Amino acid sequence: MMEPLLEGLEKTSYREGDTRVKVFGHGYLKSDILNEALNQARVEETGLRIPKLLEVRKADGKWAIVTEFVEGETLQSMMEQHPDKMHNYMEQFVLLQKEIQSKRSPLLTKLKDKMNRKISQSGLDATTRYDLHTRLNAMHDHIKVCHGDFHPSNVIVDKDGRLHVIDWSHATQGNGSADAARTFLLFKLEGKDDWAELYLKMFCDMNDVARQYVSQWMPIVAASQLVKHKPEEKDFLMRWIDVFDYE
């Protein structure tokens, strides 16, 4: 008997005993689903605390990825329920991201390659795309493991207080500041401006990175987010692209 955990239009997660079954809708390409499983396996090999990949299978004619089930509460839920502990929770969140970015996984997709592809598919005009490609290609090349959707909703805190990171479908290797820019914009998209500012300050302080450098990634990340074609996000993302500093 499968117990629904998270239901969406295109994918649904269930608990089945000690496993989590993530079922994808028919709109997902088989190659994307298999790539997500491959990402999970590659990140697992770094030694990070993530649910182990168990199998990829068909469920009622749909593809599914099966991983270990981690019993616990999301870090986002804890942040929302205990705002008085926000500073401590955010510190744990940023330290976890720092740990992730200390790892290496040479076979993961390169972040720059993925972002260049997304900018090309963003629907922006040719002049803006050219400038974004130019800026992206001028940024420093790194080989850090980047989650790609690092958000407190993707962090499970177990009963012993250990943090586990889930959903590695967007994992790449590249510049950690790009991942920080995405997390900052995700908070902003949700209207959590205070969270965004606290997060960015902690990330920059803990990693000795200038805020201005992370900010240089904002238009690039915003453009890559446009490929999701969410009408409710478009105006917000275009504002970040429009603050582009043409030098």
Automatic annotation (TrEMBL):
<dbReference type="GO" id="GO:0005524">
    <property type="term" value="F:ATP binding"/>
</dbReference>
<feature type="domain" description="Protein kinase">
    <location>
        <begin position="1"/>
        <end position="247"/>
    </location>
</feature>
<protein>
    <submittedName>
        <fullName>Phosphotransferase enzyme family protein</fullName>
    </submittedName>
</protein>
<dbReference type="InterPro" id="IPR011009">
    <property type="entry name" value="Kinase-like_dom_sf"/>
</dbReference>
<dbReference type="InterPro" id="IPR051678">
    <property type="entry name" value="AGP_Transferase"/>
</dbReference>
<dbReference type="GO" id="GO:0004672">
    <property type="term" value="F:protein kinase activity"/>
</dbReference>
<dbReference type="InterPro" id="IPR000719">
    <property type="entry name" value="Prot_kinase_dom"/>
</dbReference>
<dbReference type="Pfam" id="PF01636">
    <property type="entry name" value="APH"/>
</dbReference>
<dbReference type="InterPro" id="IPR002575">
    <property type="entry name" value="Aminoglycoside_PTrfase"/>
</dbReference>
<keyword id="KW-0808">Transferase</keyword>
